[in-house]
Amino acid sequence: MNEELDLNKIREKITKLDQQLLALFAERRSLTLNVAKSKAHQVRPVRDQQREQELLIRLIKQGKEYGLDAHYVTSVFQMIIEDSVLNQQAYLQTLANPAIELPTVSVAFLGNKGSYSYLASHRYFSRRAENIIECGCQSFADIMQQVESGHVDYGMLPIENTSSGSINEVYDVLQHTNLSIVGEITQPIEHCLLTAVNTTLSQIKTIYAHGQPLAQCSNFLDKQQNIRIEYCESTAEAMAQAAELQDETVAVIGSEEGGHLYKLAALEKSIANQNENHSRFILVARKPIDVAEQIPAKTALILATGQKPGALVECLLVLKNNGINMCKLESRPIQGRPWEEMFYIDVEANIKNMALQEAINEITKLTNFIKVLGCYPIEHISPTNVPSDKL
C-alpha cells in the first residue's frame, strides 16, 4: 500500500513537471515569434545554423551537468529548433501574403479521414489555420477539379516517396492545370498492419491497401503465404473496409495514427521496406504566392525541349552557369505526341531571384514550352549537426 502511495506521488510530480514544461515550451515559442517580427523588415535568413550549433553545444554541456545524455539533449532541441524555424517561416509568409490569411481553410486530399494525405493536410495547416474544412476525393484529378472550380481553397497531392519513388499520376495531372504549387510538406510514412479485431498474423487471409503502400511493403508481403491482396483507391478506404467487416482474417496497411480514427489496432509495426520512409506532398492553389526573401524557397518548372540532341543538357547547363541548384528532375510522356517528353524541374531559388529570372529567360529560347508551376517555401528543415567530439 505504501509503495502504491509513493508511486502515485511520483506520478503527480511528473504530471506537474509536464504542465510546467508545456508552459515553458509555449513561452519559448512566443519569444521565437518575436524574433521573426524583428526579422520582418530585414533581409536576413530565418536560420543561422552556426548559432544553432553553438546553442546545441552549450545545451549539451549544461545537460551533462544534470546527468542528461548528449544524444537526448540534441534530439529534443533539434525538434524545438525545427518548430521555431517553421513557425517563423509561417509568420513571415502571412506578412508576405496578407490576402490569404484566413481562420478557416478548405482542402481537398486523397481518401477520407485517416489517409496519409489527410494527416499531411492537418499537419501542414496546424500552423496556418484554426479550422480545416475537409474534402476527401477518390482521385488526383478530382482533387485538381475541386480546387480549379473554387469549391476548395487548396489541394494536397503526394508527389514522391523515398521508397517507391515518384508518383507519376500526379506529374501527369500537373501537365494540364493552371493551378500553382504554393507549399510542400514531408510526412513520415510508418506503415503498420492494422486489424479491427484481436487476431494473429497466421489468421490473416486478405489485406486491403492502396497501391503505394503495397509497393512500399513488398518485402513484408513477399514473406506472407496464402494472402489475397485487395486494392483500394486510398488508405482511408482500406481502413473503412476493415472497420466495417470486423473480420479476424482481414487486415489493412496504413498508419497507426490513422488507424485510431477507425478503431483499428496495429498487429505488426514498421513493415515498410525502408525504415526511413517519407512521402513529399505539394499543396496547390488557384493563385501563386509571394515567398518572403528571408525564407529558403523552391521554384518548380515544367518544360518541353523538342527532339534534338543535347537539348535538355543545354537547359541544365544554364542553371549550372547561373549558380542555381537543381534538386529534382522528372520526365513524363506528352500525351498525343509519341516519344516526346515533358520535364519537371525543381530548383532551390526564389522566383524573384535575378539569377533565376535570367536562367528562365535563357531556357525559354532553348525550349518549345516552359512554365513556372509555382514558388514556395522549403518546408523540410535539416537538423543542425553537432561535431562528434562535442557529444
Automatic annotation (TrEMBL):
The EC number(s) this enzyme carries: 4.2.1.51, 5.4.99.5
Chorismate mutase domain segment(s): 1-92
Keyword Endoplasmic reticulum in record: no
Gene Ontology MF, one: prephenate dehydratase activity
Subcellular location(s) per record: Cytoplasm
InterPro entries tied to this protein: ACT-like_dom_sf (IPR045865), ACT_dom (IPR002912), Chor_mutase/pphenate_deHydtase (IPR008242), Chorismate_II_sf (IPR036263), CM_dom_sf (IPR036979), CM_II_prokaryot (IPR002701), CM_P_1 (IPR010952), Preph_deHydtase (IPR001086)
Residue ranges annotated for the Prephenate dehydratase domain, each copy included: 106-286
Record domain ACT: where: 300-377
Signal peptide: none
Domain of life: Bacteria
Major place of residence: cytoplasm
Catalytic activity of the protein: chorismate = prephenate; prephenate + H(+) = 3-phenylpyruvate + CO2 + H2O
This protein's pathway: Amino-acid biosynthesis; L-phenylalanine biosynthesis; phenylpyruvate from prephenate: step 1/1; Metabolic intermediate biosynthesis; prephenate biosynthesis; prephenate from chorismate: step 1/1
Keyword flag Lyase: yes
One Pfam family cited in the UniProt record for this chain: PDT
Alphabetically ordered keywords of this record: Amino-acid biosynthesis, Aromatic amino acid biosynthesis, Cytoplasm, Isomerase, Lyase, Multifunctional enzyme, Phenylalanine biosynthesis
Function per UniProt: Catalyzes the Claisen rearrangement of chorismate to prephenate and the decarboxylation/dehydration of prephenate to phenylpyruvate.
NCBIfam families reported in the protein's UniProt record: CM_P_1, PRK11898.1
Protein name: Bifunctional chorismate mutase/prephenate dehydratase
Organism per entry: Thalassotalea castellviae
Lineage of source species: Bacteria, Pseudomonadati, Pseudomonadota, Gammaproteobacteria, Alteromonadales
